[in-house]
Amino acid sequence: MASNKKYWQSVEELNPNSSIVETLRNNEFVEEIPTDEFLGDKEALSSSSTSRRDFLKYVGFTTAAASLAACEGPVIKSIPYVVQPEEIIPGVADYYATTIADGFDFANILIKTREGRPIKVEKNALAGAKLSANARVHASVLSLYDSSRLKQPKVKGKDATWAEVDATVKAGLSQAAAAGGQVVVLSATTASPSTDKIIAEFGAKYAGFKHVVYDAVSSSEALDAFQAVYGERALADYDFAKADVIVGVGADFLGDWQGGGYDSGYAIGRIPTKKGLMSKHIQIEANMSITGANADKRIPLSVTQQKYALVALYNAVTGANVSVALDKTYAAAVNNAAQQLKAAGSKGVVVTGLDDVNAQLLVIAINNALQSQAFNPAGARYVRKGDAKAVAQLVNDIKAGAVSVLIMNNVNPVYTLPNGDEFAEALKKVKLSVSFTLREDETASITTVAAAAPHYLESWGDVSVAKGYYAITQPTIRPLFTTKQFQEALLSWSGNPTAYYDYIKATAPSYAPGKTWNQLVHDGVTVSEVAATVTAGAANFSGAAASLAAAKPAGGLELVLYTKTGLGDGQQANNPWLQELPDPITRTSWDNYVTISKADADALGLENWNVANGGLNGSLATLEVNGKKIEVPVLVQPGQAKGTIGLALGYGRKAGMKNEMVVGVNAYAVYNNLNSLQTAKLTKIGGEHEFACVQLQKTLMGRGDIVKETTLKDYTTKDAAEWNEMAQVSYDHKEVPATSIDLWESFDRSTGHHFNLSIDLNACTGCGACVIACHAENNVPVVGKSEIRRSRDMHWLRIDRYYSSEDTFAGDVEKKEKASGLFNSIDTFTSMEDPADNPQVVFQPVMCQHCNHAPCETVCPVAATSHGRQGQNHMAYNRCVGTRYCANNCPYKVRRFNWFLYNKNSDFDYNMNDDLGRMVLNPDVVVRSRGVMEKCSFCIQATQSVILQAKREGRVVGANEFNDACACSAACSSGAMTFGDVNNTEDPIARLKEDERAYHLLGHIGTKPNVFYHVKVRNT
Known about the structure:
It is a single chain. The radius of gyration is 30 Å and the shape is globular. It is an alpha/beta fold. Helices cover 29% and strands 20% of the residues. The strands form twelve sheets. A seven-stranded mixed sheet has the order 5-4-16-15-14-6-7, with helices on both faces. The chain has a six-stranded mixed barrel with strand order 20-26-22-25-24-27.
């Protein structure tokens, strides 16, 4: 039977006399696309050019045009994409080698671009790539698309052109030259030979010119010590792969110490062999750091006691006899470490992060006495060059009105100086102040000229992070805004017409002999020969030891300032990926706080507690340092040395920031003399603070099937069945291996590819780089602090951190096994919920385990989640109706539910809420909607790309080729994660799966995951 129903698309169609409806029916395009007008104009065609960087603008416009045509109205003057740039194949990623050098983070990297848009940071695997990408480097691609960036220069607070800026600056420089006024350039560490040369050439025109290097987080004392011994302002390099015994004293060398990048060498020595080869790591520190958490033995000492410990090490290694009063509680442990270090000889190494010249001198003396192979002063690092004394003198000069022109690049002293307010007031005395900056920050907002600087992904540059290393920074996109590089401007103001690109090209041959310019740009980095050794000059090492031994304890609490893995020095505080990244130790995001030991917290009446929704709350306190007071939340930190407290730098920024990113307190306000050690007083006040902590459970509580660990001795002397016990279940009244029992029918998995992921708990440092890489690759949304408190974070990959309840995890097991009876067991497990005062720590990355017998697949009523032959657990987002049965049935709790639409939603004003921020999205991965469940996919879009590429080239996929397809394994610089095809016997993953340390998480439940872990071995 035919239907007489009338269907209509809009209310306008109900009007039979509508001219609009009739026009649209007869003509799909209201106005013809003017192709003839453009393509028929020979002059227009010949004068046009399309580079890979221009292409972004065209593609962005056509995308917007398509949306407008579909929703609102016709597109006017839209030009079709007729001639395709040969460098770009739509749908295929291009990679460009470049280098990040923002003054705090330095790394040789590759940038993945799609249709002209940089969307992801990858590692540069070429020989010579010096520093690997940490979490901040991976997140830096999002900072390119920050809508709060300064989009054009400003003169006296008003928008201006670069011509007006040039006129203003040149007039100011001329006046300074005529009046004999001082011209000063204040910059962060550039590590750039060409930039230093340009600054020197610029300064040669002005009498009394100064170039002051200012690092917001200072390494000035270490630089002073190295310069005193070796005659060069640099830092010694270290190769921890060459060390059998490593002693760290207040040095977070797996974090930001000396620019970072030490984790890969460290991890090499941490993988145990059956011959008993494995490095021994002893860490002496006040704050619980990533490095301390990974140590075999951690000794919590105040900074004063750390100085005494260095003297003890010096005495043991050199035979000196400087009297020192070690804390009796840990004296034996320190002396034991000293003896082990001495016994290791050239296979031992000591490092320190103490802001004390004497401490730094003593470390040089100890390593030279050991003839340490890991200590490499010849390959000096140039990632820190700041001079605290020169900065202090400059501030005094500005206050005295002695500076006429101040040109700043990549610094924000109003925010980062402890006397920032005084600096801001003194800046009024400078006749011309210029700040090259990405955003209108605290300093740029009050300078004469706020010079809009390009992001490093829009810039040219060169970088020398260490002696013999030379790298190129190249743009991967045309500048999005009206910006100009500091170097380009300085050349212009010097009267040099050379473009900065040409300047670098002319400079490069002297640093990269034997390499053509094109080869250098293609590779991104080159290495040249340097002297194997360097001669140490005379220094008063015994005097340094005596000075340290005479150090006086602080009159109050010792405040130790540090940088977090997420924000570092705070340059990227407006980056939501980093704000939401949980701190590896506290598992807290969107905040900084004072960390304090349980004993000190109890004495001051400070506490933490959990509320009904699982959120963590804490006391508020007043922190007083040298008369300055700031209000801070308090977090009780297991492992914090008694008598000390910690506070992270980089938070509390306000100017040029989105409101959502204005979090935490500015710890730079108490960073007096640019020294990380301050004497402080902490006083409890009323009120409470809400933390966004993602791990309610603190201790492992003896759950040996989650994290398995053993000692090096047991690993080398006992059968694997003893230290890697396989789960047993009861079957037919007999104990049988859990893996032998199936509730499902199995199928043949030996044909084709079958993907597995290996995670070595010995190599994982908990750094979080994999979490950010996963964010970038898979378009993971940011949900904000309020949702994180409700346990609604969307991370596809989390890194669980567990503390031991006793001093060791072995002690936990022993305590659990001694429990008997109901009430005794309850009391035992209740007490095990509290970490030890100095607990052992373990990090465990957890993502979807891609179970071959997946509990989620059996309960989905709409078959939205299913298993693929390649081992991946699939998600069909269009089928998902959001029942969340799969999440309830998942024993690993790795599925994420979209409670809201996070894309284009003003309630979640992060990168997905504006057009610019969405440019970072990966077009190969769908952006999920509200009500949909999502989780790790083993980066299926990337694995399929590898397979298709091999098919196109008529070959099989090579061994280890899949490893770089999975975002987490590709980002892991320590080698803890390895991804691959277990059906390929040449692939490293096949060998790793057969290793006797391999085990499955919760193996006793029979899910048969495609992710496996390696038993953690401790060299106790």
